[in-house]
Amino acid sequence: MLAFVLRRVFQSLLVLLVVGLVAFSMFRFVGDPVDNMLGQERTQADIDRLRTQLGLDQPFPVQYFKFLQGAVQGNFGVSYRQGRPVADIIAERAPATLELAAVSGLFAITLGIILGVFTAIRRNGVAANAIMTLSLIGVSLPTFLIGILLIYVFSVELDMLPSFGRGDVVDVGWWSTGFLTKSGLMALILPSITLGLYQMTLIMRLVRSEMLEVLRQDYIRFARARGLRERAVNFRHAIKNTLVPVITVTGLQLGSIIAFAIITETVFQWPGVGLLFINAVQFVDIPVMAAYLMLISVMFVAINLIVDLLYFAIDPRLRVDGRH
Amino acid sequence: MTDPVLSVKNLVVEIPTRRAVLRPVDDVSYDIAPGEILGVVGESGAGKSMTGNAVIGLLDRPAHIAGGEIWLKGKRIDNLRADQMRKVRGKEIGMIFQDPLTSLNPLLRIGDQLEETILEHLPVSRAEARKRALQALEEVGIPAAAERLGSYPHEFSGGMRQRVVIALALCAEPSLVIADEPTTALDVSVQAQIIALLKRLCRERGTSVILVTHDMGVIAEAADRVAVMYAGRLAELGPVEQVLNAPRHPYTDGLVGSMPMASAGKERLRQIPGSMPRLGSLPDGCAFHPRCPKADAECRQNPGPTLDATGGRAACWFPVSQEVSA
Questions:
Q1: Of B97, B107, B154, the CB nearest to A221
Q2: What is the separation of C-alpha A88 from the centre of its chain, rounded to a whole number of angstroms?
Q3: Which of A46, A167, A207, B232 could bridge to B26 as Cys pair (CB 3.0-4.6 Å)?
Q4: CA of A1 to nearest chain B CA: how many angstroms apart?
Q5: Domains of chain A: which residue ranges?
Q6: Could you report the per-residue pLDDT of A44-87, keeping only the tens digit for each?
Q7: Is A226's CB within 8 Å of B168's CB?
């Protein structure tokens, strides 16, 4: 078990190293930040001075090595646009994105599993069929369109919920949270649904098909033949067996919730790292982009690691070197 | 004969399909006395398992009971509501499936699976249920049962898992167990042990058994009486020595004749020409007539005479006489 974890951590570090290289080298071809930073009235001397200052005159491997060296210490350099350390900017923006991702992830998982199980158990019912049909909308509509539709209905027409921003936030230490104020919570609703809807329908459809598969298994028949209640058969015997593949996909989906937050944050002008990234791209703010990419890959790798560990918790067959 | 534990009367199971209504079980009747082991043999698709599933109320839709009655200890059970039937399953009728590898939930400890069954049917405390679970494992011959309660199914071998399945089927002390091919998926060396175990446990408790199998050897070893099924109908029903030694129905005769015997020489085994017709295309008259050496006009028009529940007769117009089968 410990050996497995160590091996996975080592593999994860390798993945991060490669992602760092790709990210860093890709951004070298995005454009020249010096153009943007100096404006129209510039001389070649200005350009050279700034290049030296930013270290852009050094050979590529040296730049990458310096980038890695800094990254390990949490130092991603200074934003070209804002002139402040990237780590500070991201730390300031991260709570907004993480809270949004957490709420929409929770929404997607809870509702996805509940509806998935429901549509599997009542697979011929009217309600289940209606939900399945509606779920096609969630799967096929693009995120930004859902966001705009929700804004139109709930902000413009009904005037119930705010259409942009985080509302009032409260600082808890360095973390700014929207969970503690009414306007903060209200502001979370629409973006969370927008961000989570696709994942929710995906999880629901997956849970449903897995559950139908599991319900056909012999051990479910045997559980029925032993006279167990339907509730025990469905929720004790079937659900647990459904979860293993569901966790895999859900884990990856949670990663993409954070990654997809870019679109939702743009639609709702949500002050998170996604919006930060979009602005950074427009300005060729390489340190910010590189840091964002690293951050996202760290999250993906961490989620994958957690998913692998969850398998162990759920499926005893994987605990080869078990506890007895 | 005392009152039967189970009495199946003119049972008909139908599966409506787009083209026609299939009858995997057609007019089947039998009784089982307390403690009796009734073997049910036949080829795949003859309706053996379907009859068992109908008795325990676990037919997969769209299959359903379309006629006849099922009586358990003087109570009619084929028309019970789903929640009442659930209380019969496990408590009154236990069931053992073919494949022990797939009939245990891989993610639950076997102790927990035993306990949940006991708690569902018997009015006992959790501690008492734990004790009974342990006892059930010991009775089926699991070594170090106390430790094994905490094990998961994948930690057992096939034969051991089938023992666990038997413990699960018997733990609420049902009066009837339906064993659906309990040894088919097992190693030959383990088969005899499992059959012997099942036989011993049921003898001790006076539990009746419906032993569904296509293995005549298992029948010969374990059953008191045997029912031979062909294409959904009972072909022959009688005490096991009579049926095996002096089969009356030409189909049974064919089956018995195709059993490999240690005493026989090296000549080829006999076989029944052709194969069982599919349910959608049953011939008129007796379903066996196209393969039957003795069939004539009568057989092509009328199905064999229906068997009564206790009789040792064959559903055949021209039963094989004992001289011919010898």
A1: B97
A2: 21
A3: B232
A4: 18
A5: 2-72, 95-271
A6: 888 888 777 777 777 778 877 887 888 778 777 777 778 788 88
A7: yes
